[in-house]
Structures are given as structure tokens and as C-alpha cells.
Amino acid sequence: MRTAEMIDGGILVGHDGSKASSEAVVWAAGHAARLGICLHVLRAWSLTNAPRPASMAPGYVPPSEDFERAVLEQLGRDVEALHLPQDCTVELHAAHGQSSAKLLDAAKGAEMLVVGRRGAGGFRGLLTGSTADQVVRHSPCPVVVVPISDHHS
After folding, report:
1. In 50-98, which residue ranges form alpha helices assigned H by DSSP?
2. Which residues of 95-124 are buried (b: 16+ CB within 10 A; e: fewer)?
3. What is the number of alpha carbons within 13 Å of residue 49 lying toward its C-beta?
4. What CA–CA distance (Å, rounded) separates 55 from 115?
5. What is the pTM (predicted TM-score) of this model?
């Protein structure tokens, strides 16, 4: 695993496990494969949304490294399930903290930042999710917001 701060080129995409973020990863992977550049998939996490590590036991809270490993393992399974193009080089990243802040920090080394348009924050008038809104406003690189498709699985 490389830390988000070490991203050097390529396309960065945020994935939080939602359908919108999965569609953003698929879109970004297609472009990364066509351009022959690396796809960096980042999941921001906190103790409240991280999968529980195997080392967790009653009365014992594992170190943050164990939580981060569990986040990366889940992210790996989620990305594998998307069946991305075989010629797409993918690197997974986990960052402890608020998603838009971690994406913006990592985007300093990226050529493009891609996020899904989730809009699940409860504000009906907000056409993009709060993360997408923040990265569009503050990104150090070009941003693509991928809308969720209308087709149903």
C-alpha cells in the first residue's frame, strides 16, 4: 500500500462502497486503461465506517493499522467485483479521515480526480453529494463527477 500523499500521476477516484462510487471507478478505469496510466482508488475511513479487523475482540480495540488493513481488504474485494479492464493498473489506498479532505490531499499528485454523484446527504436541492461538491470547489487538478446511471441491475 502506498499512502495517498505518494500519488504521482494517474487518475484518482474515490470509492466509498456506494453504487455511485462504483460507477465512478468503472468510468475512471476505462479512461486510465485507454491512456495507459495508473488508476488510484482511495477509500477514506473512520472507526465508525471501517470494517472490523480480525484482531478485534471483546475489550480490545485494535491499532489503526489493523483497521486500515481491513479497509484495504474490503476495498480490494469491492474493486475486484467491478471486473475492471485487465490492462488497467490499479493501486488501492486507504486514508483515515474525512473523505473530501483526503481526496483533495491525494489529488495534489494526480492528473485527474473522479468521484460519483451520490447526493445521499439528505439535501434534496444539492445535485451532487457533499464530497463531490467539495472536491469540485477545491481540487488542485481537473475533476470529473460521474452521474449514476439510470439502468437498474
Report:
1. 64-80
2. beeebbebbbbbbebbbbbbbbbbbeeeee
3. 16
4. 32
5. 0.87
| Identity of the amino acid at 126 | L
What letter does residue 126 receive in the DSSP assignment? -
Measured CA to CA, the distance from residue 69 to residue 137 in angstroms comes to 31
Q: Which residues pair with 93 in a beta bridge?
A: 42
Q: What is d(CA 138, CA 39) in angstroms, rounded to the nearest whole number?
A: 21
Q: Residue 51 — φ and ψ, nearest 5°?
A: -65, 150
All three cell numbers of 145, joined, read 463527477
d(CA 100, CA 10): 18
Contact predicate 103/14, CB 8 Å: yes
pLDDT in tens, 3-38: 455 789 999 999 999 999 999 999 999 999 999 999
